[in-house]
């Protein structure tokens, strides 16, 4: 079963996909993403793989229930892609050569444009879950791309507040945050000609960082060739900085936030990438517990300014 159910109390859509209960959990003797599995090409560098247990589908199945005015239901239209970063099962994104990561960024760009061309697709979400602590079911280096028939809640909130700020100030709030941090350097962790990385002022996770292009763009496909190379470089530096700080392959989530369909040319929203490492220290995990999950209020056990200074001490150097 796969369908979308509307929560009339919160005003949010919830995906119900019962078949995902059957997906494998970290198999040790076989991987469908490895060459020779029969599921992927025997030779590839980066590759799009249709998710075997998709939350969304095209064409979508009919909902299992009829629904009514109070219990609204709709088909779970969309796409769920697995993005394979490399054929080597044991490698990591931070270990790849820059030229290889550039191929990955170009694949993200290409697939973003393909998905946005579908009339029913309203939002394309590129993300990565990395590590058993996050709930990863396949250890092969990969990320995912979901396309939604609506704008999901977190990007929707960002878009609404960015629009409000632009109406009041006449400027992009992300551009203003960049300019402010360029002066103070209070939250800056990494810098390059095309991108900046900083701990957000109101970080939810202790070592959360945001990676943002210095030129105003609304989605990943708008990056120039130079910015695409800069994206690949700064992405690897972010991961290597985390690795140097933690001293082990840390679990994290990576989320790319971009403009939805219809707002690609609007001046108020700015493409950016958010990283959420779930270790609040080298030995302790940060759990999204009762207050965060039940009330929606994150409690950060640390001071963002302090965490920015700590990460800065381990900042990966800029490479030519």
Q: Main traits of this protein?
A:
alpha+beta, nine-stranded antiparallel beta sheet, single chain, 20% strand, 320 residues
Write up this protein.
This protein is of the alpha+beta class and 320 residues long. Helices cover 27% and strands 20% of the residues. The protein contains 6 helices and 12 strands. It has helices at 98-116, 153-169, 173-184, 225-246, 290-295, 304-312; strands at 2-7, 12-17, 47-50, 73-75, 79-84, 123-130, 142-148, 188-191, 195-198, 209-213, 252-257, 272-277.
Short description:
It contains six helices and twelve strands. The protein has 320 residues and is of the alpha+beta class.
Mean pLDDT: 94
Order of helices and strands: EEEEEHEEHHEEEHEEHH
Radius of gyration: 20 Å
| CATH C-level label | Alpha Beta
Strands, count: 12
Strand percentage lies at 15-25%
Count, helices: 6
Counting structural domains, the number is 1
Main beta-sheet strand count, sense and barrel state: 9 strands, antiparallel
- Helix and strand composition category: alpha+beta
What share of the residues lie within helices?
25-40%
Q: Assign the CATH superfamily.
A: HIT-like
Question: Secondary structure elements and their pairing?
Answer:
Elements: E1 2-7, E2 12-17, E3 47-50, E4 73-75, E5 79-84, H1 98-116, E6 123-130, E7 142-148, H2 153-169, H3 173-184, E8 188-191, E9 195-198, E10 209-213, H4 225-246, E11 252-257, E12 272-277, H5 290-295, H6 304-312
Antiparallel strand pairs: 1-2, 1-4, 3-5, 5-7, 6-7, 6-11, 8-9, 9-10, 10-12, 11-12
Helix pairs in contact: 1-4
């Amino acid at each position: 079963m796969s369908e979308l159910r509307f929560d009339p109390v919160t005003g949010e859509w919830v995906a119900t996909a019962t078949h995902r209960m059957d997906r494998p959990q970290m198999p040790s003797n076989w991987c469908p993403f490895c060459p020779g599995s029969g599921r992927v090409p025997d030779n590839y560098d980066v590759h799009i793989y249709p998710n075997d247990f998709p939350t969304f589908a095209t064409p979508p199945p009919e909902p299992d229930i009829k629904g009514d005015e109070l219990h609204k239901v709709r088909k779970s239209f969309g796409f769920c892609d697995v993005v394979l970063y490399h054929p080597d099962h044991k490698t990591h994104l931070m270990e790849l050569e820059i030229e290889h990561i550039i191929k990955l960024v170009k694949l993200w760009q290409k697939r973003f444009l393909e998905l946005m061309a579908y009339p029913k697709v309203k939002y394309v979400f590129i993300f990565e879950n990395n590590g058993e602590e996050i709930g990863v079911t396949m250890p092969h280096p990969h990320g995912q791309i979901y396309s939604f028939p609506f704008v999901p809640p977190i990007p929707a909130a960002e878009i609404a507040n960015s629009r409000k700020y632009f109406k009041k100030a006449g400027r992009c709030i992300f551009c203003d945050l960049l300019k402010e941090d360029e002066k103070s350097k209070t939250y800056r962790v990494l810098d390059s000609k095309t991108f900046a990385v900083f701990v957000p002022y109101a970080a939810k996770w202790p070592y959360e960082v945001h990676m943002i292009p210095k030129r105003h763009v609304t989605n990943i496909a708008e990056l120039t060739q130079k910015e695409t190379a800069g994206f690949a470089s700064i992405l690897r530096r972010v991961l290597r900085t985390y690795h140097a700080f933690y001293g082990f392959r840390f679990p994290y989530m990576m989320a790319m936030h971009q403009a939805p369909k219809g707002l690609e040319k609007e001046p108020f929203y700015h493409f950016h990438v958010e990283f959420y490492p779930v270790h609040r220290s080298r030995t302790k995990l940060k759990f999204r517990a009762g207050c965060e999950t039940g009330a929606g209020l994150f409690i950060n056990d640390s001071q963002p300014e302090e965490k920015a200074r700590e990460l800065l001490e381990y900042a990966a150097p800029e490479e030519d």
